UniProtKB/TrEMBL annotation:
Pfam families: PUB, zf-A20, zf-AN1
Gene3D superfamilies the record matches: 1.20.5.4770, 1.20.58.2190, 4.10.240.30, AN1-like Zinc finger
UniProt KW keywords: Metal-binding, Zinc, Zinc-finger
Alphabetized SUPFAM superfamilies for the sequence: AN1-like Zinc finger, Glucocorticoid receptor-like (DNA-binding domain), PUG domain-like
Ranges for domain AN1-type: 276-322
Protein name stated in the entry: AN1-type domain-containing protein
Molecular-function GO term, any one: DNA binding
CDD domains: PUB
Species this protein is from: Spongospora subterranea
InterPro entries, per the entry: AN1-like_Znf (IPR035896), AN1_A20_ZnFinger (IPR050652), PUB-like_dom_sf (IPR036339), PUB_domain (IPR018997), Znf_A20 (IPR002653), Znf_AN1 (IPR000058)
Record domain A20-type: where: 170-204, 206-241
Length: 342
């Protein structure tokens, strides 16, 4: 390859910078084809500049990952972008594989709602068409997209390594940033789980809350707890409990309640025999039974599975009943011992 002087190097550098900026803005430029050497170095410069721009975007994406949830979101975004690039490499001539619908749910979740991911998509060559489609041109560079996939895999490995590390000891726990009274989580921007979900839904966590009525408290109160925050409510309940226990008549009252409860349970055990109200259901399992079912001698109606006296707790004394029945059916006949002589 012949050498080039400094003026040619400066010219190539200016052309690369100008053409790269034009391509980033979605404008295609026509390169001069008269000088093969210049075109060769220009293409090499484009590749290096493009790789540098991708590395810069990945570095800026990495800087936004300050919480665990953002790292997980970026990991799923990288997996989605990798899937798009793999589909393009499978069939570069198919226009459907080179298009990303911006109205799609997957686009909103993995690209639109994640910071700086859309800028990364534009850096690797996607252009917004009519504000509803991201499209890449038919001149697909297979080796370039393979390199982008390798870069995404490397960043995904870094995120996995950071997620596997144990969290640092951040000292004492902080109150929720939504001032609800619960503790916040540093991974959710110092919000509790409830306030963080409200914040993601576009709602202010403090809109439906009122100030705690306790003097000197800066948290929000809960209407179900007398407009007190959780801490003030628990403190009040503890004070009430301690004041009740400290009274001299409290323990005798509790003993008397225990005695009354024991008497009540004893009366429940001595209560009269229960009555079967619904005669269409089994007394043991509440299974529906026909109207022609025959009641047991204990007075209750059972299904075919519990009809036998061995299958339910029958309270009828069959032995005594049979004894009385035999006495009634077989009366004792006693004749005169002596015949009377008149």
């Amino acid at each position: 390859m012949p050498d080039i002087d400094d003026s040619q190097k400066l010219k190539i550098t200016e052309m690369v910078s100008r053409d790269h900026q034009a391509r980033y803005n979605g404008i295609r430029t026509e390169l001069p084809s008269d000088d093969l050497k210049t075109n060769f170095f220009l293409s090499m410069g484009h590749a290096l500049a493009h790789d540098a721009a991708i590395d810069k975007e990945l570095f800026e994406l990495k800087q936004t990952l300050d919480t665990r949830m953002r790292k997980l979101a970026m990991k799923t975004s990288f997996a989605h972008i990798r899937k798009i690039l793999e589909n393009i490499l499978k069939n570069p001539a198919n226009i459907k594989s080179r298009r990303v619908l911006m109205k799609n749910f997957a686009y909103k979740k993995f690209i639109g709602d994640v910071p700086r991911v859309l800028a990364f998509m534009k850096t690797i060559g996607f252009v917004a068409m009519n504000d509803d489609v991201l499209e890449i041109g038919p001149d697909v560079n297979v080796e370039f997209f393979k390199g982008v996939i390798l870069k995404l895999d490397a960043k995904t490995t870094e995120i996995d390594f950071e997620l596997s590390q144990p969290p640092d000891d951040a000292g004492p726990r902080k109150q929720c940033a939504g001032r609800c009274g619960f503790f916040g989580n540093p991974e959710t921007d110092d919000y509790c789980s409830l306030c963080f979900r409200s914040r993601l839904a576009g709602k202010d966590p403090a809109t439906n809350s009122a100030e705690c009525i306790s003097q000197g408290c800066v948290n929000f109160g809960n209407p179900s707890k007398d407009k007190l925050c959780n801490k003030c409510w628990h403190d009040r309940e503890e004070r009430r409990k301690s004041s009740w226990v400290s009274r001299t008549w409290w323990l005798p009252l509790q003993r008397a309640k225990a005695k009354l409860r024991a008497i009540w349970w004893f009366q429940q055990g001595c209560s009269p025999r229960p009555i079967q109200v619904d005669l269409r259901k089994c007394w043991a399992c509440s299974k529906k039974i026909p109207l022609t079912a025959v009641a047991c001698r204990c007075g209750y109606i059972f299904c075919s599975n519990h009809r036998s006296t061995l299958d339910h707790d029958c309270t009828f004394n069959f032995r005594r009943a049979h004894k009385v029945r035999l006495q009634q059916l077989n009366p004792q006949i006693q004749g005169k011992k002596f015949d009377r002589l008149d």
